Amino acid sequence: MSLNRWNKNYLLAFVDSHIINYPSPVNLNYFWSFGSLAGLCLVVQIVTGIFLAMHYTPHIDYAFNSVEHIMRDVNNGWLIRYLHANGASMFFIVTYSHIFRGLYFGSYMHPRGALWNSGVIIFFLMMGTGFMGYVLPWGQMSFWGATVITNLASAIPVVGESVVQWLWGGFSVDNATLNRFFSLHYLLPFAIVGLVCVHLSLLHYNGSGNPLGINKNVDTISFYPYFYVKDLLAFLVLLAFFSFFVFFFPNTLGHADNYIPANPLVTPAHIVPEWYFLPFYAILRSIPDKLGGVVAMVAAILILLLLPIINTSEVRSSKFRPIYGVAYWFLVSDFLILGWIGQNPVETPYVEVGQVATVFYFLFLLVLIPVINKVDLPVARVEEVTRQIVELIGCEEKDIISSSAKSGIGIPDIFN
């Protein structure tokens, strides 16, 4: 009776179908909580950002002091500022985990190509939002980071210099630049919210993936109360991890030079972006040509859009792709190496290591993924995969066949 009352109201029926009784694969594990954690981080960033904007002054003469005013004079301003600054790092930690989980379990494969690509676009906007937010405190790293990154547009043939001056709003990084970055930094999170809604719509249209990579219609249960408990535990773990940095090491993930007011006449000895940009910054520095470096850095993100197209595997999960399952960890190691290279000076041997790591990054995503999927062991055969599923989820083979028949799919289609 209560369910009927829910379904008579459009909004309540929407909540019921998309949250409470949303059919979720029975074998989801905690790796599937990273998406919910990313949503939580987005809410934290928007809420704390709105409160910070109430006291921040986007002017080169007052920006640095307004941040210090928030820290020292505004009630609990230090907490809001540290939540926002460290929240950005938490957001990227969760997002990188979400992306690499998707790479391991084949979340980019049909029919979830559009879902994967919407996530890549969200990630791209996150990078832009994070960069502009880094400029706003107007410390040394803020100013010189903005100068270096915006200058990259000058590598564009013919119109490069005009584009740079348009970005700056003048002939150098100045007040107009800071105002524009503040406006865009405030606006883009709401654009991300819109794309997140699209992302969730695509997720619920195609259904969630699962560790085995089988069709979601084979065995599902409602999201509530079974999986909200897993997400709740993940929330609490993230909260503890987040609080550890906010209350004990609030400046560890930042750069000390950003507590020095911006000075156009004094260049820092070593200009580095925030840690979550370091792998892509390393790719930028690994290419000797300026234009080539810019193209490679942008391509390192946008290349993820090609994965649904160049994929050649008919089986999603790496549990049934042993060669790819091993090669995947080389990609993870390579990404960590790029992050380490990005924080080191541009000198031997860091330059050479960065170049090798950059080549491997593109080689893996463009060449090795389709090749490995072709030469991987033939574990995608229906009989063997069915046997392994029986062992993993403890049901009878006839039950899988029966479930697939009821849902209108054949055994080979279970993995598509």
Describe the structure.
Helix content is 66%, strand content 1%. Helix 3 (34-53) packs antiparallel against helix 5, helix 5 (77-105) crosses helix 11 and helix 6 (113-135) packs across helix 7. By secondary structure, it is mostly helical. The chain is globular. A two-stranded antiparallel sheet has the order 1-2.
Any chance you could write out the topology, listing elements then pairs?
Blueprint: H1 2-8, H2 10-20, E1 23-25, H3 34-53, H4 63-72, H5 77-105, H6 113-135, H7 140-151, H8 160-168, H9 175-206, E2 220-222, H10 223-226, H11 228-248, H12 278-286, H13 290-302, H14 307-310, H15 322-342, H16 350-375, H17 382-393, H18 397-406
Antiparallel strand pairs: 1-2
Helix pairs in contact: 3-5, 3-9, 3-11, 4-5, 5-11, 6-7, 6-9, 12-13, 12-15, 12-16, 15-16
- Structural class by secondary-structure content: mainly alpha
Give me the Rg, rounded. Answer: 24 Å
Which geometry do the CA atoms define? globular
The helicity comes to 55-70%
One letter per element, helices H and strands E, the order comes to HHEHHHHHHHEHHHHHHHHH
> Could you give the count of β-strands?
2
Strand content: under 5%
Estimate the mean pLDDT confidence. Answer: 87
Biggest sheet statistics = 2 strands, antiparallel
Q: Cα distance, first to last residue?
A: 37 Å
- Strand order in the largest sheet: 1-2
Counted by DSSP, the helix tally is 18
Low-confidence stretches: 400-414
